[in-house]
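Notes from hallway chat w/ T.B., transcribed later so I don't forget. T.B. wanted the structure written out for a chain they're using in a teaching module, and asked if we could keep both sequence and structure tokens in one place. Agreed to drop them here.
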Amino acid sequence: MDTLFFLASKLIWALISPDSLIVLLGLSAWLALLVGWQRLARRLLSLCTLLLVLIGFLPVGEWLIAPLENRFAANAALPAQADGVIVLGGALDAVKSSAWNQAELGNAADRVTGFLHLAYLYPTAQLVFTGGSGTVLEQEFKEADSMRVLLEQLGLGNRAIVFESESRNTFENAVNSKALVAPAPGSNWVLVTSAFHMPRAVGIFCGQDWTVYPYPVDHYSRKGNLLRVQFQFSNNLEILRMAVREWIGLIAYRVSGRSAQLLPSDRNFCGNPATTS
């Protein structure tokens, strides 16, 4: 069932992502012109043009991603002692890392720097990196394998780090990591991931009866400056893709029972350690 969910999520997203929809609209307009459906072609082209202009000039993606990034406060109070720190994969491109034989970090590199900060802040905590491959056709490239080398280069070679390399999504991150480290009830664990992804991650960990302190990093919205007009098409489109994908993921995980809550926040999630510490 987990494999079916994984494959279905990849297929559906490939069809409904914003960039795919724009391409499909353009192709549909072209086909409509070929068969002589002028009115339909004009409507499709008008819709495609409208989307291109809106995405290019307005931070639509930030409007969607900001509510997710604001669910958990940045730099929130942490426990005086932590039993463990867990970071979700997504910061490193395993395929490129393998091709170039060195760590190739992407936009979510803040996950690594946040993990390093917490590793030094809690010198006795159990460290966990969880991330395999999120692609369908390149399962042989595991992010955890490349991350092992990178963390050694960054000075954590003397720490006992658990590397979980078989997970393909956040649900498997939580399930597989829990099986490896068996967190004790009431123990303090800090979770590191991108701010927009933190609500879904917390909901999944809550569903596994694993209460964590959220440590969100890697923000994409410009807090306090969301009402602006500025042409940045590629950047705006990328943020829109992330935002739409995350909202769809939140709904899909909740409906499928993989998450304990639709939208966890500082004020309302399993045990809410941020207000009870």
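Follow-up for T.B.: The longest strand covers residues 189-194. Might be a good example for the class.
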